[in-house]
Specification:
Elements: H1 2-45
Amino acid sequence: MKKVIIASLAAMFVLTGCNTFKGLGQDVSSAGNAVTGSAQDVQDKI
């Protein structure tokens, strides 16, 4: 019974970690898109 509980907790932490890293990747991607857009605006003004 203890093994089942430990395995369930481990799976919960692993899945939570995956979602966290997925969200972090999306945040970094959107920040990169913002920088790219700003750079494009500056380039268009020059």
